[in-house]
Specification:
Elements (H helix, E strand, L loop, with lengths): L1 H14 L7 E5 L6 H10 L4 E9 L5 E8 L5 E7 L4 E8 L6 H10 L4 E9 L5 E10 L2 E8 L5 E3 L3
Antiparallel strand pairs: 1-2, 2-3, 3-4, 4-5, 5-6, 6-7, 7-8, 8-9
Length: 158
Amino acid sequence: MKNRYLNMLVLLGLASSFVSAGTEVKIDFNDIPKDIMSVAQELLPEAKFTSANTEEETDGTFVYEIQGKIKDGRKVEVDILKNGKIEEFEVEFSRDMVPGAVLKSLESKLPGFKPSYIEASHSASKKVIAYEFVGTRDGKDFDVDVSADGRKIELADQ
């Protein structure tokens, strides 16, 4: 019973720190401005980009999100601001690519969580800044963001 109470407190704490996303709009791949597309191609020259959308974040920031795959078949997404600055890029990761400290932290904060999809968020300098885990716990779907060092965990809105 004590463990169940502790788990509920952890979930309530996580729920109070939701990460908010903006409004996404799918766009035709050919409508990506050439200067924006060239930034994505320069960052990940081996990627084959195939789709895109725009997102206006809750703070009004406008972002082009360009999706594709790299040579080994993993999904990628490059998020580029209107001015051509890279906001971040995300690469699909397998569980064995995630540092043990991050996995241990996730398991201690959300025991029984089963990830079905993992991606690593990178800065423009290609440094991992966070991990996003999509999965389930007790039959409920969760989207969980974990800092690169595993110290900060937030539930993202669905």
